[in-house]
Amino acid sequence: MHLFSSKFVKPPDHVNEITGSVTTPRGFRASGIAAGLKKSGKPDLGMLVSESPCTSATLYTPNAAAAAPIRVCREETAAGALQAVVVNSGSANACTGERGLEDARAMVKLAAAKIGIDPRFMAVASTGVIGQKLPMEAVEPGIKFAADSLSKSGGGDFADAIHTTDKLDKDGAVEVNLSQGTATIGACAKGAGMIAPALATLLVFVTTDAVIPAPLLRKMLTAAAGGSFNAVSVDGDMSTNDFILLMANAESGVAIEPGGGDAILFSEALAAVCKGLALKIVADGEGATKVIELNINGAAGAEEAVRVAGAISNSALVKTAFYGRDANWGRLIAAAGAALAGQPELLADIHYEEVCLARGGVACETAPDPERLKEIMGKPEISVTLDLRRGGSSHTMYFSDLTHDYVTLNAEYTT
Amino acid sequence: MHLFSSKFVKPPDHVNEITGSVTTPRGFRASGIAAGLKKSGKPDLGMLVSESPCTSATLYTPNAAAAAPIRVCREETAAGALQAVVVNSGSANACTGERGLEDARAMVKLAAAKIGIDPRFMAVASTGVIGQKLPMEAVEPGIKFAADSLSKSGGGDFADAIHTTDKLDKDGAVEVNLSQGTATIGACAKGAGMIAPALATLLVFVTTDAVIPAPLLRKMLTAAAGGSFNAVSVDGDMSTNDFILLMANAESGVAIEPGGGDAILFSEALAAVCKGLALKIVADGEGATKVIELNINGAAGAEEAVRVAGAISNSALVKTAFYGRDANWGRLIAAAGAALAGQPELLADIHYEEVCLARGGVACETAPDPERLKEIMGKPEISVTLDLRRGGSSHTMYFSDLTHDYVTLNAEYTT
To answer: B363 and A132: CB-CB below 8 Å?
Structure first.
């Protein structure tokens, strides 16, 4: 229920966190029920609905094996005008061919009919095991039950229903103070496999009662994702099912114009909400014990900064060293050097928090205080900075450590 | 002592494995001693020397943070004419700046002086922890002792001295029957971090008593590495210290001319030796319980085949599924699809050994025999084939699974 539990994100002054969820903004209802898709009997099907038409923005995985619901949303629903979404966990409906497309379309049609909207305004998302057909004999009655269960207080149930291996709650709400009044943002996310960025499903649903034209909404969402979900999931290298949906239903009457000061203020609020969720996803990374903020400075270009950050964030040797509380900066520089293969000698400076471990690519002359270093490595959040000394570009990423529990979870989470 | 213990490599008919090591070819001597660099007291310094001048070929890491010995070899020793090498384990002499270069040069100079050759013909290599200065007060007497210990039977000691976390022996020898007579090849390798390809140090030393001109030797080594060491360590994405050295001292008198049939026969033998060593490195992958052969067929081009193979081989989700004996082909197709982001829908066929699990991107209509699948997933070597159905290019890679022991080893192997 807390969006800002990490030291790496603080809401701006005009943003107040409030107790809430995706149904906190005016005019949204939601539900989450157990349809029987998960063997555990936990909630596995949810609906989120705005009572009035919305402008909307979406981000879809570019994966060439994109799941059926992604294809259906991308190609068959309205762009910029989605009003509701139906989501199931327990089965990804990915690698399911023509039958999968039919099932996703059937979900859309049934959910839209139950709440009385045009199917073109109904989005669909799935997450779970890849390559298995959806059990429609459970999904269809589930959708009916979910539609009947929609309520103003159903945001938490919806958030629960989209989880798979998640352990932490990942939802909340904020009030945004704007020149024309106060708008509310609600949000929830699903995802806990970020130790292997890109291959865990990320689902994010954000609601607001502000009045925002669809093109502006899209621009804001893209910007917010760049500093949050795309900064924990590297290089567009995303799962088959990743889906981010932002809906604005105008119920507050607070209008945000492109180019105005309120657009900036709302963008900042949206960025903070997304970053808060993204950091929760990392903290909930399968088996994770730590979140590392990795600041790459001094890169020769933006692409290089992203590439080096990705190489380090994905290195199993780097991740296991953090798990072992070992300030093994050599593994960071080796990963960075591999990402810069063929380039002139890398002469990076490396800091763990304020402690300098390497300068000009070599261990610092003065050995760091071992007590302070031990203290840093024992913390749940560690900020690490590499200055490549090659130029003026920067990029920040967030990653978790690689642990015994990660292996246990993923060796046992089975088809 | 067995180069061909994997089902994925068989020596050609004209190649006979014999008991031996890098000192089995005529005119080579070696040693391995404990100089005190490893806290464990195990051997950590070795020398390998040909009694007569050699032609040679080398492959160096392209890492931008390449270690001092790599820089010294690459820039200050003779190209194509190396006659000996001195190697230490326990410290990588990487990220050690000017002092590191001086230490590497001092190793070369001292080792060359002890055996009476020009320092330009002496290579140097190091492996171990990055970012620490070499303890020259231990290295210098160590080199003297290693030089005094050189012997015809020292190949096994040399192989031991270059190991770090290796558990399996990785050395052997073959006789190669050629039109002019029989030549011998000896070889040893170090490396056991291939679960995180690219960040573990790979050291390989190959000796032969054949007569081979340096340009031909270089061509043969590059080809052999392409199907072996570069097929387990992805994309040139190598460690700070990777080094492969091939020396031919002509002592057998068996001459190999460029373009002749013997060049092809010798190339095949060298490729088999390198593949045998590479597969041992994968099998000895830190914590590994399995070796997976991954055949990517039907790619739209060679680069695409390599990219998809690399994405799957590096996926933590794929690796943990093999550890869990779970034929979770969805994770393979998700990784392949991420590597093909933005491309048309991926409609791959997937086989585990002869069993079809997916056809056209969808689970096979006929479910595979669960008993046979269980048997396959329980084996230590598994062959997996993905046909991308996009073109005519192929690439084969070998990778190991990701296990609890990997995490233990790398969280505890400390600076």
So the answer is: yes
This model of the complex carries an ipTM of 0.82
Q: Which residues of chain A have pLDDT under 70?
A: 1, 192-200, 233-238, 413-415
Spatial distance between the Cα atoms of A90 and A43, rounded to a whole number of angstroms: 9
With an 8 Å Cβ cutoff, is B342 touching chain A? yes
Q: At CB < 8 A and 24+ separation, what contacts does B266-269 make?
A: B266/B176, B266/B178, B266/B183, B266/B210, B266/B212, B266/B220, B267/B220, B267/B223, B267/B224, B268/B12, B268/B14, B268/B15, B269/B11, B269/B12, B269/B14, B269/B15, B269/B174, B269/B176, B269/B185
The CATH architecture of the domain made up of B291-412 is: Roll (3.10)
pTM for this prediction: 0.87
The reply to whether A72 touches chain B by the CB within 8 Å rule is: no
**Token digits for A327?**
């300030």
Nearest CA-CA distance, residue A316 and chain B, Å: 6
- Strand partners of residue B285: none
Does residue A308 belong to the interface with chain B, where contact is any CB pair within 8 Å? no
Active site residue A366: no
Round the average pLDDT of chain A to a whole number and report it: 92
Residue-wise pLDDT tens digits, B234-281: 434 568 899 999 999 999 999 999 999 999 999 999 999 999 999 998
The C-alpha atoms of residue A316 and residue A314 are separated, in whole angstroms, by 6
CB pairs under 8 A between A and B: 238
- Report CB contact under 8 Å: B199, A97: no
A 171-200 near B (Cβ less than 8 A): 193, 195-196, 198-200
Quote the CA–CA distance of B275 and B228 in Å, as a whole number: 4
Higher pLDDT, B316 or A260: A260
Length of chain B: 415
How many beta carbons lie within 10 A of that of residue A223, not counting itself? Answer: 15
- Token duo for residue B177: 């029957």
Q: Tens digits of per-residue pLDDT, B177-202? A: 999 999 999 999 998 664 444 445 78
Yes or no, beta carbons of A334 and B415 under 8 Å apart: no
Q: Domain residues of chain B, as ranges?
A: 15-283, 291-412
Angstrom distance (rounded) from CA B215 to CA B220: 9
The pLDDT value given to residue B194? 46
Which residue numbers of B are catalytic?
Answer: 201
Fold adopted by B15-283 = L-amino peptidase D-ALA esterase/amidase (3.60.70)
- At residue B195, the pLDDT reads 41
Of B92, B316, B344, the CB nearest to A196: B316
Residue of A60, A63, A401 to mutate, testing the B interface (most B Cβ within 10 Å of its Cβ): A63
B144-163 pLDDT, tens digit each: 999 999 999 999 999 999 98
- CA nearest B133 in A: which residue? A363
* A330 contact residues in B (CB cutoff 8 A): 92, 94-95, 129-131, 240, 415
